[in-house]
Amino acid sequence: MADEGLPVIARFEVHRRSYLAPDGTVLRPLPDFASDMSKLLALYRGMVLTRAFDLKAVSLQRTGRLGTYAVSLGQEAVSVGIASAMREEDVLLPSYRDNGTLLWRGTKMEEILLFWGGDERGNLSSGPAHDFPYCIPVGSQAPQAAGVAYAFKLRKEPRVAVCLFGDGATSKGDVWEAMNFAGVHKLPLLFVANNNQWAISVPLKLQTASQTLAQKAIAAGFIGEQVDGNDVIAVRAAAEEAIAQARAGGGPRLIEALTYRLSDHTTADDAARYRPPEEVQTRWKEEPIARLRAYLVSQKAWGKAQEEELAAECQKEIEAAIERYLASSPRAPETMFDHLYAELPRAYASQRGELSRGSDA
Amino acid sequence: MPELTLVEAINLALARAMEEDANVVVLGEDVGVNGGVFRATVGLQQRFGAERVIDTPLAELLISGLCVGMAAQGLRPVGEIQFMGFLYPCIDQLVNHASRLRNRTQGRLSCPMVLRTPHGGGIRAPEHHSESTEAMLAHIPGLRVVMPSSPERAYGLLLASIRDPDPVVFLEPTRIYRAAKGQVEDTGEALPLDVAFVLRKGRDVTLISWGAVVKETLAAADELAAQSIDAEVIDLATLKPYDEETVVASVTKTGRCVIVHEAARTGGFGAEIAALIAERGLTSLLAPIARVTGYDTVMPLPRLEQRYIPSVARIVAATHKVCEFA
Fold it and tell me: Which of A4, A44, A116, B92 has the least CB density, counted as fewest CB within 10 Å?
């Protein structure tokens, strides 16, 4: 125990943001954008589409038409809320579960399917050309995000890098090194820790003894805020504020979005091996889509007819994308060399030739 | 033409690249005010400012990750890792990201970055400061691995590496940073990557080497010449992708080959060259290929390091054996 007579030289606070209770009732005055019902409806649509797409992707995987896939079930508010606060010219560095973020920013469903279906062309993406592809080695996109943000600062461009990762990633040095550098240089960078409580089978309490993930920003010298990640209004409001601050030169922020992974880690995982189904059942009561729907219904902005119409519209859109995905032509084998270097080194010409002649098969 | 040391040639190339292209930034530990622990970046921060010559926190993974992010955004980052023994935290960024960003995105994003680091032993440095693990890097598809062995080639190859549209690991032979001197004019002319340099023409045997030990290889060739053995000496210079044609052409001509590298033998880059010659030049061979390398042990601390690094005597002895084989 420290001597009580020693002076306190620093104190820190971590704030938590939420507007909607799990049943959709309003906890505190909503942010300005929420008075525009069309914005809330767009967020709702984005979440519903993401969930419908994810579930369809799983059924494609189960029937052998897609590879391993990471579902974002229950976390749609994080993906969509963050994406909705970004501008086209901002740069996204997503993790492998941020399907809703990519969809919102313009990646086509058939592109996402193509990537998880085993074809690099899926990463060509119709979204912003400067966005990064899914990052699979956990947390390794964080120092890259700092590099992107440094480029913006050096060129005096009013753009922001947005880096998404999970709770597991906060245990890696990558994330800390990136936050530390971002703090030193006040970079235009938003870190988002999607805290879904589980890193495959490892629960948060084995990941860290830290009371919040948000407070990890404090050591790096900037604000960390915890947000109810199942409240899309809270996610968007926190992201808007952080991105505006970053764009104005005010430096980075960390948002810890507290949510829950309702699905298995991926289609290759079986969560029943390590977590009780009762826990999942309880968490279903907090999920983001029902929550926003309850609020919209309470505002008379939504009803059964609209719900059915939206579901049908999403199904139609998804089915059409799946058709395009399944109809995609295979890559010529030799093209595995075509984007290795800007120009194929002559040393590898004969290997490419072997593939194009088909003499490997 | 001014006579420069190898490290001065590096500095000259960095300054030239920064002058020519505002997208070139230099980052690393102590590269700014201090000018780098070997002074490779001396004067750059004064000339180009702290925004373009960045003293980073002490975090190598970060340096490599920053380079990837900056490069994807169109900058031309040149990161410095203080010693090769500290490069290992960067492997994730090099293998999973830098080398395959272009391929993963089918050309939508690219990664024109350079990661410089001193290579090899012989300067009586502490533990972990004398690594030569280039073969590990040369195994990574999508990367370029370059290692100059003279001030002229350091200048020209570094300029080429910075201008190259793909990621390059640039390994600098620590032992000859100051020992190697040469005439270097600041012409801005790059040397080609992926091309080996024939430093000495010869008929009897091909000696292939790279990095600091090129010096011993050339000295061995001089000694052999006095004994009427006419050795051709090739500085491979770029290990990934490497110049197979120059190697095969030389061995086809001489029929004998000795490969010299400082790194440990097993799985060293010499094994790759020996395999290439076996595949494409076997019928020309008049003798088995010999390798003169570091031993398959950890690089010893300074009291023994000279016994680890290939010596002129070892190269000469191995060459005799190859030349006497009937």
Answer: A4
Q: Is the pLDDT of residue B217 over 80?
A: yes
Task: List all residues of chain B from 118 to 177 with a beta carbon under 8 Å from chain A.
Answer: 141-142, 165-166
Q: What residue ranges do the domains of chain B occupy?
A: 3-183, 197-324
Over the stretch B134-170, which tens digit does the pLDDT of each residue have?
A: 999 999 999 999 999 999 999 999 999 999 999 999 9
Instruction: Give yes or no: residues A72 and A112 share one domain.
Output: yes
Among candidates B57, B75, B108 on the partner chain, residue whose Cβ is nearest the Cβ of A180: B57
Contact B64, B94 (CB under 8 A): yes
Domain that holds residue A262: 15-330
- A350 to chain B, any CB pair closer than 8 A? The answer is no
- Kindly state the DSSP code that residue A89 receives in the 8-state scheme: T
pLDDT digits (tens, 9 = 90+) for A38-52: 999 999 999 999 999
A230 and A129: one domain? yes
Question: For the domain B3-183, what is the CATH code?
Answer: 3.40.50.970
Task: Report yes or no: A101 and A76 within 8 Å, Cβ to Cβ.
Answer: no
Question: Is A7 contained in some domain?
Answer: no
Q: Give pTM, 2 decimals.
A: 0.97
Lookup: tokens for A245: 């601050």
The verdict on whether A51 is a catalytic residue reads: no
Q: Does B202 touch chain A (CB under 8 A)?
A: no
Beta bridge partner(s), residue A24: none
Query: What single-letter DSSP state applies at residue B191?
Result: P
The verdict on A96 and A152 lying in the same domain is yes
B98 touches A: beta carbon within 8 Å: no
Taking the C-alpha atoms of residue A88 and residue A86, their distance in angstroms, rounded to an integer, is: 7
> Which chain A positions have a beta carbon within 8 Å of B54's beta carbon?
150
Answer yes or no: do A205 and A104 share one domain. yes
Nearest-CA neighbor of A58 among A209, A219, A201, A266? A266
Structure ipTM over 0.85, yes or no: yes
Per the CB < 8 Å rule, is A151 touching B70?
yes
The number of distinct structural domains making up chain A is 2
Distance CA B82, CA B58 (A): 10
Q: Are residues A338 and A295 in the same domain?
A: no
pLDDT for the residue numbered A359: 76
CATH, residue A245 = 3.40.50.970
Q: How far is CA B208 from the centre of its chain?
A: 14
Q: Do B69 and A149 touch (CB under 8 A)?
A: yes
Q: Between A and B, how many CB-CB pairs are < 8 A?
A: 138
The CATH class, in words, for B197-324 is alpha beta
In this prediction, residue A2 carries a pLDDT of 61
Asked if A278 and A360 sit in the same domain, the reply is: no
- Round to whole Å and give the CA distance between B80 and B98: 15
Q: Do residues A237 and A356 both lie within one domain?
A: no
**Does a structural domain hold residue A2?**
no
Looking at the fold, whether A204 and A141 belong to one and the same domain comes out as: yes
